[in-house]
Amino acid sequence: DAGVIQSPRHEVTEMGQEVTLRCKPISGHNSLFWYRQTMMRGLELLIYFNNNVPIDDSGMPEDRFSAKMPNASFSTLKIQPSEPRDSAVYFCASSPSGQVMNTEAFFGQGTRLTVV
Amino acid sequence: DAKTTQPTSMDCAEGRAANLPCNHSTISGNEYVYWYRQIHSQGPQYIIHGLKNNETNEMASLIITEDRKSSTLILPHATLRDTAVYYCIVRVRSNSGYALNFGKGTSLLVTP
After folding, report:
1. Which of A39, A9, A33, A37 lies closest to A21 in space, CA to CA?
2. pLDDT tens sequence across A60-80
3. CA atoms of B29 and A2, how far apart (whole Å)
4. What is the mean pLDDT of chain B?
5. Is B69 an 8 Å CB contact of chain A?
6. Burial of A70 by CB count in 10 Å (0-12 exposed, 13-18 middle, 19+ buried)?
7. Which of B30, B100, B102 sits opposite A42 (nearest CB)?
């Protein structure tokens, strides 16, 4: 298995533009997580899906952020409009099941977003 | 989730055992202790987890005290490639599922 695949690996965009980050979880995994990492705040959970349904989006910073999971093999995180403070590394992770405690999560390589 | 406390940084000589401590004094009976690490510029990587008993796998050993209020991750023969930030996480069931909440972690530097 290729693991969790994120695209693009790097994204540079101008303030005000729409940004879409993509994630392909490991086949057969039921749970998908989006995290953001910055030097100041560390790794923050943004949103968590179980069986394609958003379970907890309390970590989403504001209405400019939205996430979707139209099917079990694809998820997007969209920022519209983007701002410089959104610059961070965004990680996607998947897990066999979010409802079973005794499981591990697998992370992608991340998307480094720079908003200028 | 129970709060965890880890030292900010540690050093270890290559070839020696690296012992990374974690305090989780408020852990409850159904909470697991997970360890992940993050090598620079990569996504976090699962290492090991446990509930009550000590655990060992090909990467590391996890020693959990009898009262479960603290644990130690042991890398038996540290290599330069083990230089990373190590996160101790206590994972609990909640209405929001089982998402991992990362703290600051311990930055481990393995030196030649």
Report:
1. A9
2. 988 999 999 999 999 999 999
3. 36
4. 91
5. no
6. exposed
7. B102
